[in-house]
Amino acid sequence: MLKNRQILGCSSGFVSHRWKPYSTTSGSLSFLSISTCSNPSLSYSFSSSSSTLLPTTTTTWLSSTHRPRFGAFSMSSAPSGSNPDGPSSSVAVQSAGNAHKINFCQSCGGPTKHEIPDGEEKIRAICTVCERIAYENPKMVVGCLIEHDNKVLLCKRKIQPSYGLWTLPAGYMEIGESAAEGAIRETWEEACAEVEVVSPFSQLDIPLIGQTYVIFLARLKTPHFSPGPESSECQLFALDEIPFDSLSFSSMVVTLKLYIEDVKAGKLNFHYGTINKRPGTSPSDIHAYTLEYHLQS
Predict the structure, then answer these.
(1) Cα–Cα distance for residue pair 22/31, rounded to 1 Å
(2) What secondary structure does DSSP assign to 11-24, as a single string?
(3) Smallest Cα–Cα separation from 277: which of 237, 248, 249, 241?
(4) Are the beta carbons of 132 and 124 closer than 8 angstroms?
(5) What whole-number distance in Å separates Cα of residue 232 and Cα of residue 228?
(6) 109: number of Cβ within 10 Å
(7) According to the model, what pLDDT value does residue 125 have?
């Protein structure tokens, strides 16, 4: 169930950047910021050697030989006339999300003030009565990429945003369920399909709108599906027939392109990446984004 809540979130104040690792004279690993690619169509910059793009064994979070190896590349998509090669910054600046829209305390109802609490760096809404600080956290969207007879199942949305556009069955994870359980539930609600989760396929963070997408590979338990209340159509598409110009969100574009690349390479990977949306763009604008620091195992 992915409804109009998607358009809420930080709409300005984010300077996107991408980090490129390089070795210093001391042998340690540092990072410098680089701009996005200039090709207005989809483009890749890939290194098959994970050690050239990721921290070395002196780093703890991906250094262990027991961890999977990752390769990395970047992806960008922008309409013609845009300038993805604008000035790059080595500092990411984020606004306080919707803090200025929180005018009353959700605990006691008292009026709020907007300032930076002691020991923090972002402006928060602080209750002037009970002094409770309102923290906003990202929402998790979970869904399934369903494989059946070398095709994938897509749903045409019957709700806003992105009414009439195609999507993988996905929606907001609920309290009390796991990510996989939420993906299975959303698939049933949107496609009336019973599925079995096979493995996680991708995690895509979208900082600008405060969302994280977790998509699972899944298979149909039975070859039956039909539109749920939020869908007008459900259809299996061969990979070369996927309607990329009519997809609902950039997250769907990225997920399906990564899947096609994996299928062509003969190996399905797990993918992590950050989708940086251009400030001020709508969720349905599937071109105004860059996929940065993409990792695959």
Answers:
(1) 6
(2) -S-----EEEEEE-
(3) 249
(4) no
(5) 8
(6) 10
(7) 95
Q: In this structure, which amino acid lies at residue 202?
A: S
Residue 27 CB partners (closer than 8 Å, separation 6+):
none
Given this model, what pLDDT does residue 96 score?
53
- The C-alpha atoms of residue 277 and residue 285 are separated, in whole angstroms, by 9
Number of CB atoms found within 10 A of residue 220's CB:
20
Contacts of 95 (CB under 8 A, 6+ apart): 10, 12, 13, 14, 123
Poorest-pLDDT segment among 44-58, 81-95, 165-179, 205-219:
44-58
Closest listed residue to residue 77, CA positions, set 273, 293, 267, 277: 277
Can you give the pLDDT at residue 75? 58
The pair of structure tokens assigned to 277 is 């949306």
The answer to whether the beta carbons of residues 182 and 191 sit under 8 Å apart is no
Q: What is the DSSP letter of 240?
A: G
Label the pairing between strands 211-220 and 139-148.
parallel
Alpha helices in the chain (DSSP H): 179-191, 250-265
Q: Locate 248 and state its tokens.
A: 């609902």
Q: Which of 176, 212, 217 is nearest to 198 (CA)?
A: 217
From CA 126, how far away is CA 116, in angstroms rounded?
9
- Whether 14 and 277 have beta carbons less than 8 Å apart is answered as no
Which of 280, 260, 286, 282 is CA-nearest to residue 271?
A: 260
The two tokens of residue 41 are 């169509």
Distances (CA, A) of 167 to 16, 29, 64, 103, 285: 26, 40, 37, 35, 14
Query: Please, are residues 229 and 1 in contact by the beta-carbon 8 Å criterion?
Result: no
- In the three-class reduction of DSSP (H, G, I as helix; E, B as strand; rest coil), residue 74 is classed as strand
φ and ψ of 183, to 5 deg: -65, -40
